[in-house]
Amino acid sequence: MNEEQFKQLIIRYQSGKATDAEIRLLEKWLESRAQSDLYEKLTAEEKGDIKENVRRTLQGRIVANDSRDRQGTLTTWVLRTAAAVLLLIVSSYFAWQWAKTDKTTVATMLQSSASGNNKKVMLTDGTIVWLKPNSILTYPSLFEKTERHVSITGEALFEVAKDASHPFIIRCGDLTAKVLGTSFNIKSGNGNIEVTVLTGKVSLYSFDRQHDLIVTANEKAVYNEGKDLIAKVELRKEEVDQTVQGTEYSMDFEDTPMSEIVRRIEGKFNVTVTMENDHMEKCRITADLTDQSLNRALSMISQSLGFEYEIKNAVVTMRGNGCE
After folding, report:
1. Do residues 294 and 311 make contact, with C-beta atoms less than 8 angstroms apart?
2. DSSP 88
3. How many whole angstroms separate alpha carbon 153 and alpha carbon 297?
4. Lower CB count within 10 Å: N or C terminus of the chain?
């Protein structure tokens, strides 16, 4: 088992999706490492993160134990809890090792809000990820020179920044999605992984590369992990509406004033937009800026209305004569 496979196994374990055989394998391995000094090699910040993760893990396992396994012994529960704690230590150690050897492979794990709200994550390449509740996104602080790798447990809507020379690769369980620049939703649960493509094209393949499938805009594919089968299924409009709900994905404007367009751009791309001429706010535009990067969206607006724009840090300055 290589490091990538081990990392994916950790994610499945922490999300409660590991099989009984995988759990036994992990716990047996962890018992053999229990006397190691991995924990002592971690920084104070990493130890603090572990303590917080342990607290959450224990709470979740206490609830699960009370509700679904009242007949289990206390000893079994304690052993599994200890294994969970050790697993967090080991996963943090791997992160520490990666940070020490190569800054481009430092992985950050983000868990979305448990309150039911989506969490927007902007990656260094300009990709926007709408992380759905109770989901985990793993990504590097800096992408590699040739490919952009991330992994997801749960559900997320991706708006991948277009870059033909650097494919964007998403790992979800045993399924891998490869794109150049597109928008799609990926969701795992109940033994299935669903991929809904909104724009562009996504190449899907299973862990052993025995199944390959191309999914294009307005199509959906379902991968059954137990049977190792993948197939396209009908995509209903209500599914698309549900997929983008709670995000700022849609940027389709029809005769919309610039004041509203600016508000939407600021909210989606985390920037501040300044228009030097007050008359610019009165201009109206009809355009679909969905699935467009900040630069591309501003370019389309400037060409349509004869504006000029400049981006410096997180501030966009727009110049033009405006409209009466």
Report:
1. yes
2. H
3. 30
4. C
User: What Å distances lie between residue 279 and 214, 316, 320, 321, CA to CA?
Assistant: 47, 17, 9, 7
The three-state secondary structure class of 123 is coil
Quick one: tokens of 5? Answer: 């496979």
Statement: 252-319 belongs to CATH 1.10.560.10: no
Residues 168, 301: Cα–Cα separation, whole Å? 27
Token pair for 2: 């290589």
Q: How does pLDDT run across 215-249, given as a tens digit for each residue?
A: 999 999 999 888 888 999 888 888 888 888 888 88
CATH class of domain segment(s) 107-244: mainly beta
Domains 107-244 and 252-319 in one fold = no
pTM: 0.63
So where are the chain's domains? 3-101, 107-244, 252-319
How many helices and strands (H and E) does the chain possess?
7, 19
The label of the residue with tokens 């959450």 reads 56
CA atoms within 13 A on the CB side of 279: 8
Give me the sheet containing 219-224, strands edge to edge: 119-122, 128-131, 155-159, 183-189, 192-199, 219-224, 229-233
Token pair listed for 149: 């790798």
Lowest-confidence segment of 76-85, 157-166, 273-282 by average pLDDT:
76-85
Amino acid making up residue 85: V
The mean predicted confidence, pLDDT, of the chain is 76
Residue 20 scores a pLDDT above 70: no
Reported as a pLDDT band with limits 50, 70 and 90, residue 282 is confident
* Contact yes or no for 154/111 (Cβ under 8 A): no
pLDDT > 50? residue 210: yes
User: Taking a C-beta distance cutoff of 8 angstroms, is the pair 140, 95 a contact?
Assistant: no
| CA dihedral angle for residue 43, residue 47, residue 52, residue 57, rounded to 10 degrees | 130
How many C-beta atoms surround the C-beta of residue 246 within 10 A? Answer: 14
